[in-house]
Write a structure and sequence with these properties.
heterodimer; A: alpha/beta; Rossmann fold; 3 domains; seven-stranded parallel beta sheet; B: Rossmann fold; globular; binds guanosine-5'-diphosphate; binds magnesium ion
């Protein structure tokens, strides 16, 4: 049996190795995705994002347990930043999810953002697809809500939960850029802290002003993830959002946009990889740069020539 | 290709300190490895399952409580049961010299006792990882 047959038959080892193949960009990754693809599209994908330390992992752990109680199987993809200086990472999300480890209905995978420009979004999408094909009903993707690449990652979700914490002083201002616009649900976590009312009011005001909210007005929920308070309510809100997605036709629309974006990303990735492979050979890149500096060629005719050669 | 060496750093047993494990985790990160850190009081079953899901190349365990003679070999066997025989297994902590040969016999690749430099651990991993 090949690795895809094995994972479709339920092998957790095959699932783990298929994810590695995608993550490490092994040669067989494209083949794996090609075979996995027909079995995807069934899972419900929930994105959990927000600043570091907001309680995303704790909340994911508690939500996962709720879904398990309803006998749904769960996959979790937890993304943490790779150190730009060393290329390594400490992936610590499992610390909050240890009670899930021995549940055979849960599969958790930690990922570093690594170096790839834009490649992260494509890889996480592929990892989600592999878990989907494996048969996971619910897939969580946890990522820190800073930076465009993280926002790209979380956009693979059907429902995006933005986790915020009261009493940070500059809370709303600090996270305004990027994640406020994409939240379908806001969880004010650490609601045992001071400042809940203020944050709640600020959030509601922001949401009032957002013109995108004509059809779905984002819900605001309070949680104390460490105690499990409000988690059932949050799950209820997620279900409500899913119902809205389905009945309004928005789910089809979102998935279609996603399919388009994935296709464009894939095209982009493959073409630029071929170009890079081609011009990195034997230091050709440097000599091309020299030829531009010496006014023998322009960047434009170089690109035209390379593309003509590759796309022949 | 974007391969990284992945290391599960785990604290089996009941002792409540993970300062040493955190120092090692940071040193491994600084060496360019991806460290999956699972925190305190892991059972051998949890360690083996996390190693499988995370598809790690290395499992590094540290233990101060003296239960190494039972816990380390148990992890080795569970990893074997899960067909993870290529995983490099390392042990650390307060471990008497006299216990080391039996642990290696059981399948722990190397034991690092207090005072080992983190650089030595990094070197060992680089030289022996499969
Ligand atoms: N007081 C309080 N602490 C919490 C709450 N939720 C999580 N924490 C703690 O906040 C810390 C960070 O949580 P974690 O889930 O790792 O945050 P993440 O970085 O967003 O994934 C941990 O020590 C949690 O125990 C909460 O609702 N109230
Ligand atoms: Mg986390």
């Amino acid at each position: 049996m090949d690795i895809v047959q094995e994972l479709l038959a339920g092998s957790r080892l095959a699932l783990a190795r298929a994810i590695t193949a995608v993550e490490n960009e092994y040669d067989e990754a494209a083949e794996i995705m090609q075979k996995v693809y027909p079995f995807t599209g069934k899972a419900q994908v929930i994105g959990i994002t927000g600043p570091p330390g907001a309680g995303k992992s704790t909340l994911t752990d508690k939500l996962a347990k709720e879904y398990r109680r309803q006998e749904k199987t769960v996959g979790i993809v937890a993304v943490d930043p790779t150190s730009p200086f060393y290329g390594g990472a400490i992936l610590g999300d499992r610390i909050r999810m240890n009670e899930l480890t021995l549940d055979p209905g849960v599969f958790i995978r930690s990922m570093g953002t690594r170096g790839s420009l834009g490649g992260l979004a494509r890889k996480t999408v592929d990892v989600i697809k592999i878990m989907d094909a494996f048969g996971k009903d619910i897939i969580f993707i946890e990522t820190v809500g800073v930076g465009q690449s993280e926002v790209d990652v979380i956009k693979a979700s059907d429902t995006i939960v933005v986790v915020l914490v009261p009493g940070q002083g500059d809370d709303i201002q600090a996270i305004k850029a990027g994640i406020l616009e994409i939240g379908d649900i806001f969880a004010i976590n650490k609601a045992d802290y001071d400042g809940v009312e203020r944050l709640n009011t600020e959030l509601e005001m922001m949401l009032e002003l957002n013109p995108n909210n004509a059809l779905w007005r984002p819900l605001v929920k309070r949680t104390v993830a460490s105690r499990g308070d409000g988690v059932e309510d949050l799950m209820q809100a997620i279900n409500e959002h899913v119902e809205y997605l389905v009945t309004s036709g928005e789910l089809i629309r979102r998935r279609s946009i996603r399919t388009k974006n994935e296709l464009l990303l894939l095209i982009n990735d493959h073409i630029s990889k071929q170009v890079m492979d081609r011009i990195s050979l034997g230091g050709e890149l440097d000599s091309l740069v020299n030829s531009i500096e010496d006014h023998q060629q322009t960047p434009y005719n170089i690109v035209r020539n390379i593309l003509a050669e590759i796309l022949r | 290709m974007e391969k990284r060496i992945r290391v599960l750093v785990a604290k089996p047993g009941l002792d409540g300190h993970d300062r040493g494990a955190k120092v090692v985790a940071r040193a491994l990160r600084d060496a360019g490895f991806e460290v999956i850190y699972t925190g305190l009081r892991q059972t051998p079953e949890q360690i083996a399952e996390a190693a499988l899901e995370e598809d790690v190349n290395v499992v590094a365990m540290s233990l101060l409580s003296g239960a190494h003679n039972t816990l380390f070999p148990k992890v080795v066997n569970l990893l074997k049961d899960k067909e993870l025989e290529n995983v490099l297994i390392l042990g650390g902590g307060v471990i008497p010299d006299t216990d080391i040969p039996a642990l290696k016999q059981a399948g722990v690749a190397e034991i690092f006792t207090p005072g080992t430099s983190t650089a030595a651990i990094v070197e060992f991993i680089k030289a022996n990882v499969k």
